[in-house]
Amino acid sequence: MSVLEIIFTIFGVLVGLFLLWVLIGFLAYLFSLRRGGLAGKLVNKQFMKEIESYKIDYSWWKTVPSKEVEIKAGEETLVGTVLEKSGSNKVGICVHGYYGNFKDLNPWAKILYEENFNVIALDLRAHGKSSGQKVSMGYFDKDDIVLWINKAIEMFGEDCQIVLFGESMGGATILMTSELKLPKNVKCVIADSAYSNAYQAFEYIIEKRGFLPAFLFLPVANFFSKVFADCDLKKASPIDSVKKSSLPILFLHGLDDKFVPAYMSRDMFDVSNKEICSLYLTKGAGHIKSYAKDPEGYKKVMMSFIEKWLS
Protein backbone atom coordinates (compact mmCIF):
# COMPACT_ATOMS: atom_id res chain seq x y z
CA MET A 1 0.00 0.00 0.00
CA SER A 2 1.38 3.39 -1.00
CA VAL A 3 1.72 6.34 1.36
CA LEU A 4 -1.14 8.10 -0.45
CA GLU A 5 -3.41 5.07 -0.03
CA ILE A 6 -2.57 4.93 3.67
CA ILE A 7 -3.39 8.62 4.05
CA PHE A 8 -6.74 8.19 2.28
CA THR A 9 -7.55 5.13 4.39
CA ILE A 10 -6.82 6.97 7.62
CA PHE A 11 -8.80 9.96 6.38
CA GLY A 12 -11.74 7.70 5.48
CA VAL A 13 -11.69 6.06 8.90
CA LEU A 14 -11.58 9.44 10.64
CA VAL A 15 -14.48 10.74 8.53
CA GLY A 16 -16.44 7.58 9.28
CA LEU A 17 -15.81 7.91 13.01
CA PHE A 18 -16.80 11.58 12.89
CA LEU A 19 -20.05 10.77 11.08
CA LEU A 20 -20.77 7.97 13.56
CA TRP A 21 -20.12 10.38 16.43
CA VAL A 22 -22.53 12.92 14.94
CA LEU A 23 -25.13 10.23 14.23
CA ILE A 24 -25.05 8.91 17.80
CA GLY A 25 -25.35 12.46 19.13
CA PHE A 26 -28.34 13.12 16.88
CA LEU A 27 -30.00 9.87 17.94
CA ALA A 28 -29.36 10.80 21.58
CA TYR A 29 -31.24 14.06 20.95
CA LEU A 30 -34.18 12.21 19.35
CA PHE A 31 -34.01 9.61 22.10
CA SER A 32 -34.31 12.06 24.99
CA LEU A 33 -35.62 15.46 23.88
CA ARG A 34 -38.45 14.80 21.45
CA ARG A 35 -42.05 13.91 22.16
CA GLY A 36 -42.49 10.13 22.25
CA GLY A 37 -38.74 9.57 22.47
CA LEU A 38 -37.43 6.19 23.53
CA ALA A 39 -36.15 7.68 26.79
CA GLY A 40 -39.70 8.66 27.69
CA LYS A 41 -41.01 5.18 26.93
CA LEU A 42 -38.31 3.59 29.07
CA VAL A 43 -38.88 6.06 31.91
CA ASN A 44 -42.63 5.48 31.83
CA LYS A 45 -42.23 1.70 31.67
CA GLN A 46 -40.01 1.72 34.76
CA PHE A 47 -42.28 4.25 36.47
CA MET A 48 -45.36 2.06 35.98
CA LYS A 49 -43.49 -0.95 37.35
CA GLU A 50 -42.89 0.98 40.57
CA ILE A 51 -46.14 2.94 40.66
CA GLU A 52 -47.22 1.58 44.05
CA SER A 53 -43.91 2.63 45.64
CA TYR A 54 -44.68 6.25 44.71
CA LYS A 55 -48.13 6.06 46.36
CA ILE A 56 -49.66 7.47 43.19
CA ASP A 57 -53.32 6.64 42.61
CA TYR A 58 -54.44 7.55 39.10
CA SER A 59 -58.03 6.59 39.92
CA TRP A 60 -58.23 9.49 42.40
CA TRP A 61 -58.71 11.93 39.55
CA LYS A 62 -62.05 10.28 38.76
CA THR A 63 -63.29 10.86 42.32
CA VAL A 64 -63.08 14.66 42.22
CA PRO A 65 -64.95 17.12 39.97
CA SER A 66 -62.58 18.49 37.33
CA LYS A 67 -62.51 20.31 34.04
CA GLU A 68 -59.94 20.86 31.33
CA VAL A 69 -58.73 24.35 30.53
CA GLU A 70 -56.65 25.34 27.51
CA ILE A 71 -54.30 28.28 26.96
CA LYS A 72 -52.23 29.32 23.97
CA ALA A 73 -48.45 29.66 24.20
CA GLY A 74 -47.35 30.88 20.80
CA GLU A 75 -48.25 28.09 18.38
CA GLU A 76 -48.79 25.55 21.14
CA THR A 77 -52.01 24.67 22.94
CA LEU A 78 -51.42 23.80 26.59
CA VAL A 79 -53.90 21.83 28.69
CA GLY A 80 -54.47 21.92 32.43
CA THR A 81 -56.83 19.94 34.64
CA VAL A 82 -58.62 22.18 37.15
CA LEU A 83 -60.07 21.15 40.50
CA GLU A 84 -62.16 23.90 42.09
CA LYS A 85 -62.89 24.60 45.75
CA SER A 86 -65.88 26.88 46.13
CA GLY A 87 -65.13 30.05 48.07
CA SER A 88 -61.36 29.50 48.27
CA ASN A 89 -58.85 32.02 46.93
CA LYS A 90 -55.92 29.60 47.33
CA VAL A 91 -54.50 28.07 44.15
CA GLY A 92 -51.90 25.36 43.67
CA ILE A 93 -50.31 25.15 40.22
CA CYS A 94 -48.74 21.68 39.94
CA VAL A 95 -46.16 20.64 37.36
CA HIS A 96 -45.14 17.07 36.47
CA GLY A 97 -41.76 15.60 35.59
CA TYR A 98 -39.85 14.29 32.57
CA TYR A 99 -42.17 12.54 30.07
CA GLY A 100 -44.97 12.53 32.65
CA ASN A 101 -48.44 14.07 32.68
CA PHE A 102 -50.86 15.68 35.13
CA LYS A 103 -52.03 12.35 36.58
CA ASP A 104 -48.56 11.74 38.06
CA LEU A 105 -49.23 14.68 40.39
CA ASN A 106 -51.92 12.82 42.32
CA PRO A 107 -50.28 12.80 45.82
CA TRP A 108 -49.44 16.50 45.83
CA ALA A 109 -52.62 17.67 44.10
CA LYS A 110 -54.59 15.65 46.66
CA ILE A 111 -52.77 17.28 49.59
CA LEU A 112 -53.52 20.75 48.26
CA TYR A 113 -57.11 19.95 47.30
CA GLU A 114 -57.86 18.51 50.74
CA GLU A 115 -56.33 21.66 52.27
CA ASN A 116 -58.97 23.76 50.47
CA PHE A 117 -56.84 24.73 47.45
CA ASN A 118 -58.07 25.11 43.92
CA VAL A 119 -55.66 23.01 41.86
CA ILE A 120 -54.39 23.42 38.31
CA ALA A 121 -52.45 20.31 37.28
CA LEU A 122 -50.61 20.88 34.03
CA ASP A 123 -49.56 18.90 30.99
CA LEU A 124 -46.36 20.62 29.88
CA ARG A 125 -45.72 21.26 26.20
CA ALA A 126 -44.87 18.02 24.34
CA HIS A 127 -46.49 16.05 27.19
CA GLY A 128 -49.93 14.61 27.83
CA LYS A 129 -52.73 16.45 26.04
CA SER A 130 -50.68 19.57 25.36
CA SER A 131 -49.28 20.10 21.89
CA GLY A 132 -45.64 20.39 20.90
CA GLN A 133 -42.75 18.12 19.94
CA LYS A 134 -39.78 19.64 21.79
CA VAL A 135 -38.90 18.66 25.36
CA SER A 136 -36.93 21.64 26.68
CA MET A 137 -36.31 20.48 30.26
CA GLY A 138 -38.13 23.56 31.55
CA TYR A 139 -36.33 26.11 29.36
CA PHE A 140 -39.47 27.17 27.46
CA ASP A 141 -41.90 25.80 30.04
CA LYS A 142 -40.84 28.42 32.60
CA ASP A 143 -42.54 31.06 30.47
CA ASP A 144 -45.61 28.87 30.03
CA ILE A 145 -46.00 28.81 33.82
CA VAL A 146 -46.35 32.61 33.75
CA LEU A 147 -49.28 32.18 31.36
CA TRP A 148 -50.84 29.68 33.75
CA ILE A 149 -50.35 32.08 36.66
CA ASN A 150 -52.22 34.75 34.71
CA LYS A 151 -54.93 32.21 33.87
CA ALA A 152 -55.26 31.32 37.57
CA ILE A 153 -55.75 34.99 38.45
CA GLU A 154 -58.35 35.29 35.70
CA MET A 155 -60.21 32.23 37.01
CA PHE A 156 -59.93 32.73 40.77
CA GLY A 157 -59.72 36.48 41.19
CA GLU A 158 -57.23 39.29 41.64
CA ASP A 159 -56.86 38.43 45.34
CA CYS A 160 -56.01 34.76 44.81
CA GLN A 161 -52.88 33.38 46.46
CA ILE A 162 -50.79 31.03 44.33
CA VAL A 163 -48.38 28.27 45.31
CA LEU A 164 -46.17 26.74 42.61
CA PHE A 165 -45.39 23.05 43.08
CA GLY A 166 -43.26 20.87 40.80
CA GLU A 167 -41.66 17.45 40.90
CA SER A 168 -38.41 16.52 39.12
CA MET A 169 -38.37 18.42 35.78
CA GLY A 170 -41.51 20.23 36.94
CA GLY A 171 -39.62 21.36 40.04
CA ALA A 172 -36.78 22.62 37.89
CA THR A 173 -39.30 24.42 35.70
CA ILE A 174 -40.94 26.38 38.51
CA LEU A 175 -37.54 27.24 39.99
CA MET A 176 -36.63 28.84 36.66
CA THR A 177 -40.00 30.61 36.67
CA SER A 178 -39.27 31.99 40.14
CA GLU A 179 -36.67 34.49 38.86
CA LEU A 180 -39.12 36.07 36.41
CA LYS A 181 -41.24 39.12 37.10
CA LEU A 182 -44.37 37.53 38.53
CA PRO A 183 -47.64 38.89 39.93
CA LYS A 184 -47.68 39.44 43.69
CA ASN A 185 -50.25 36.62 43.86
CA VAL A 186 -47.43 34.05 43.73
CA LYS A 187 -46.52 33.46 47.36
CA CYS A 188 -44.05 30.55 47.37
CA VAL A 189 -42.46 27.72 45.41
CA ILE A 190 -42.08 24.03 46.34
CA ALA A 191 -39.66 21.92 44.28
CA ASP A 192 -39.38 18.18 44.89
CA SER A 193 -36.36 16.32 43.43
CA ALA A 194 -35.40 19.13 41.03
CA TYR A 195 -32.11 19.21 39.13
CA SER A 196 -29.88 22.26 39.39
CA ASN A 197 -28.92 22.20 35.70
CA ALA A 198 -30.38 20.07 32.89
CA TYR A 199 -27.06 19.48 31.15
CA GLN A 200 -25.44 18.32 34.39
CA ALA A 201 -28.44 16.10 35.15
CA PHE A 202 -28.00 14.30 31.83
CA GLU A 203 -24.26 14.00 32.51
CA TYR A 204 -25.04 12.33 35.83
CA ILE A 205 -27.55 9.88 34.35
CA ILE A 206 -25.31 8.91 31.43
CA GLU A 207 -22.31 8.38 33.66
CA LYS A 208 -24.30 6.32 36.20
CA ARG A 209 -26.61 4.36 33.91
CA GLY A 210 -25.43 4.85 30.35
CA PHE A 211 -22.99 2.89 28.25
CA LEU A 212 -21.59 5.84 26.30
CA PRO A 213 -19.21 8.48 27.71
CA ALA A 214 -21.16 11.67 28.40
CA PHE A 215 -18.26 13.97 27.47
CA LEU A 216 -18.24 12.54 23.94
CA PHE A 217 -21.90 12.48 22.97
CA LEU A 218 -23.79 14.89 25.22
CA PRO A 219 -22.22 18.00 23.59
CA VAL A 220 -23.42 16.73 20.19
CA ALA A 221 -26.90 15.99 21.50
CA ASN A 222 -27.00 19.48 22.99
CA PHE A 223 -25.85 20.92 19.65
CA PHE A 224 -28.84 19.30 17.93
CA SER A 225 -31.09 20.51 20.73
CA LYS A 226 -29.93 24.06 20.00
CA VAL A 227 -30.34 23.61 16.23
CA PHE A 228 -33.71 21.84 16.14
CA ALA A 229 -35.31 22.93 19.40
CA ASP A 230 -33.63 26.32 19.95
CA CYS A 231 -32.79 25.06 23.44
CA ASP A 232 -29.38 24.99 25.10
CA LEU A 233 -29.55 22.49 27.96
CA LYS A 234 -26.85 24.39 29.82
CA LYS A 235 -29.21 27.37 30.00
CA ALA A 236 -31.93 25.25 31.59
CA SER A 237 -30.30 26.10 34.90
CA PRO A 238 -32.52 26.40 37.98
CA ILE A 239 -29.54 27.11 40.21
CA ASP A 240 -28.91 30.35 38.35
CA SER A 241 -32.58 31.28 38.72
CA VAL A 242 -32.58 30.52 42.44
CA LYS A 243 -29.74 32.99 42.93
CA LYS A 244 -31.95 35.73 41.49
CA SER A 245 -35.29 34.67 42.96
CA SER A 246 -36.98 36.72 45.70
CA LEU A 247 -39.64 34.09 46.39
CA PRO A 248 -39.67 31.69 49.36
CA ILE A 249 -38.62 28.24 48.13
CA LEU A 250 -38.92 24.84 49.78
CA PHE A 251 -36.48 22.28 48.36
CA LEU A 252 -37.52 18.65 48.95
CA HIS A 253 -35.33 15.68 48.04
CA GLY A 254 -34.75 12.02 48.84
CA LEU A 255 -31.25 11.19 49.96
CA ASP A 256 -31.30 7.91 48.01
CA ASP A 257 -32.25 9.57 44.72
CA LYS A 258 -30.32 7.74 41.96
CA PHE A 259 -31.87 9.76 39.14
CA VAL A 260 -31.36 13.35 40.28
CA PRO A 261 -28.83 13.41 43.14
CA ALA A 262 -29.82 15.15 46.37
CA TYR A 263 -26.71 17.32 46.25
CA MET A 264 -28.39 19.32 43.48
CA SER A 265 -31.08 20.54 45.90
CA ARG A 266 -28.40 21.17 48.53
CA ASP A 267 -26.42 23.25 46.04
CA MET A 268 -29.48 25.31 45.18
CA PHE A 269 -30.37 25.85 48.81
CA ASP A 270 -26.79 26.99 49.46
CA VAL A 271 -27.15 29.85 46.94
CA SER A 272 -30.73 30.75 47.93
CA ASN A 273 -31.93 33.40 50.36
CA LYS A 274 -31.86 31.26 53.50
CA GLU A 275 -34.00 33.76 55.41
CA ILE A 276 -36.99 32.70 53.34
CA CYS A 277 -35.96 29.33 51.82
CA SER A 278 -35.88 25.86 53.38
CA LEU A 279 -34.42 22.42 52.62
CA TYR A 280 -35.97 19.11 53.66
CA LEU A 281 -34.13 15.85 52.91
CA THR A 282 -35.70 12.42 53.45
CA LYS A 283 -33.53 9.47 54.42
CA GLY A 284 -34.08 6.29 52.43
CA ALA A 285 -36.19 8.02 49.75
CA GLY A 286 -35.50 7.68 46.04
CA HIS A 287 -36.47 9.99 43.20
CA ILE A 288 -39.74 11.83 44.07
CA LYS A 289 -40.37 9.22 46.77
CA SER A 290 -40.04 11.45 49.82
CA TYR A 291 -43.82 11.63 50.15
CA ALA A 292 -44.17 7.87 49.79
CA LYS A 293 -41.48 7.30 52.41
CA ASP A 294 -43.08 9.53 55.04
CA PRO A 295 -46.51 10.86 53.95
CA GLU A 296 -47.43 12.53 57.23
CA GLY A 297 -44.02 14.12 57.80
CA TYR A 298 -43.86 15.29 54.18
CA LYS A 299 -47.34 16.82 54.32
CA LYS A 300 -46.54 18.56 57.61
CA VAL A 301 -43.38 20.14 56.21
CA MET A 302 -45.11 21.14 52.98
CA MET A 303 -48.18 22.68 54.58
CA SER A 304 -46.22 24.42 57.37
CA PHE A 305 -44.11 26.12 54.72
CA ILE A 306 -47.15 27.14 52.69
CA GLU A 307 -49.04 28.48 55.70
CA LYS A 308 -46.06 30.59 56.63
CA TRP A 309 -46.29 32.54 53.38
CA LEU A 310 -50.02 32.69 52.74
CA SER A 311 -51.95 35.43 54.48
Describe the overall structure.
The protein is α/β, with parallel strands linked by helices and 311 residues long. It folds into 2 domains: 1-33 and 199-234, no CATH class; 55-197 and 236-309, Rossmann fold (3-Layer(aba) Sandwich), CATH 3.40.50.1820. Helix content is 45%, strand content 17%. It contains 11 helices and 8 strands. The chain has helices at 3-33, 38-49, 106-114, 141-156, 169-177, 198-209, 214-229, 238-244, 263-271, 290-293, 295-309, and strands spanning 67-73, 76-83, 90-95, 118-123, 161-167, 186-192, 249-254, 278-282. Strands 1-2-4-3-5-6-7-8 form an 8-stranded mixed sheet, sandwiched between helices. α5 links the parallel β5 (161-167) and β6 (186-192).
Helix content: 40-55%
Strand content: 15-25%
For the biggest β-sheet, the strand order reads: 1-2-4-3-5-6-7-8
Main sheet specs: 8 strands, mixed
CATH class of the largest domain: Alpha Beta
Low-confidence stretches: none
Mean of residue pLDDT values: 91
Order of helices and strands: HHEEEHEHEHEHHHEHEHH
N/C terminus separation: 83 Å
CATH topology of the largest domain: Rossmann fold
Quickly give the structural class.
alpha/beta
The assigned CATH architecture of the largest domain is 3-Layer(aba) Sandwich
CATH superfamily of the largest domain: Alpha/Beta hydrolase fold, catalytic domain
